[in-house]
Amino acid sequence: MSLFIIGDVHGCFHTYLKLLDHWEPKTETLIQLGDLIDRGNFSPLTVRLAFETKKVFKYSVHFLKGNHEQMMVNHLKGADKSNLWINNGGKEALAQFKAQNLDPNFYLPWMESMPVFWENQHVVVSHAGFSGIGSPLDLDNPDGVLWNRKPLINLGKLQVIGHTPLLDGKPEYQSQSNSWNIDTGAYKGNCLTGIKLKKDGTFLESISIPTDPKDISDANQPYAGFLKNPLKENLRM
């Protein structure tokens, strides 16, 4: 199976649905590299869709943990003493969950169990990438795969990351580290990007969907009852 890797969604539900229209479940493994939540207007629906997608496509879909999922987990477990998540989109996300009559704690075990990377012999995917500084899988390491913003090391295989928005809205390949950054700033009004690769890391194409204004406009707040079954209505089985 080839790979379809999607960057930081940040609650941009409608944009995410449009990008998922380009996924071929029968021939492509879907990997989302973290930060499904907050910033945009539809975090609860984005989380619910991802959760249901994973249930249906158990072995061919992988949702990785981003730093915003980790911040949400910390908050829900009472471990966020400095209100880091609340001050970085969490306050608005919790209000959205309340408006949708969805309990964020229902998704806590799933989010807590999310892997922090996915790899095969040729490709490794993580939220922020491998810096070579400290333990890369330490959830609190500022230079680890959840938080790193330093240059990446070359792992001898292709890295695909997000986390650091590209202001020009274009995915970027770095030859020195053999890596792609595909965070094209969906919540900033740019676009949401997915990249398609052969399983050996050979580039096939990138697909960028302009951010749907509903996902970021203050005038379009989430409302209860939207898309009662988004999986059935929007994913090709």
Characterise this structure:
This protein is of the alpha/beta class and 237 residues long. It has one domain: Metallo-dependent phosphatases (Purple Acid Phosphatase, chain A, domain 2, 4-Layer Sandwich), CATH 3.60.21. It is 22% helix and 19% strand. It is built from 6 helices and 10 strands, in the order E-H-E-H-E-H-H-H-E-E-E-E-E-E-E-H. The strands form 2 sheets. It has a 5-stranded mixed β-sheet. The longest helix has 14 residues. The protein is globular and about 45 Å long. The two termini are 16 Å apart. The C terminus is likely disordered. One of its GO terms (molecular function) is hydrolase activity. It comes from Belliella marina. This is Metallophosphoesterase family protein. Its EC number is 3.1.-.-. Keywords: Hydrolase.
